[in-house]
Design a protein that fits this description.
With 76 residues, the chain is an all-alpha fold. Helix content is 79%, strand content 0%.
Length: 76
């Protein structure tokens, strides 16, 4: 039997997904792993954003450093 239209393929996939048994147990180890994974993911995202911001603003920091050096030499 050849499935030719998208609706019948979708319906077949949904029917097959209903046959899969779900997990019965959720204990403390699973909760700890979930919290640890969420924490590591959040810290990783923040670290990446910090790295990207520093990499992107290095030109601005060099310009500001140069301007402050020029200002210090003009006043002395």
């Amino acid at each position: 039997m050849a499935l030719k239209d998208q609706n019948s393929v979708t319906m077949l996939c949904l029917f097959l997904l209903t046959l899969v048994q779900t997990a019965e147990a959720f204990d403390g180890g699973d909760a700890a792993a979930l919290l640890l994974g969420a924490t590591v993911t959040l810290v990783g995202i923040c670290a990446f954003l910090g790295w990207y911001a520093r990499k992107r603003n290095v030109i601005c920091i060099k310009i500001l450093f140069t301007l402050t050096q020029i200002r210090k030499t003009n006043f002395n």
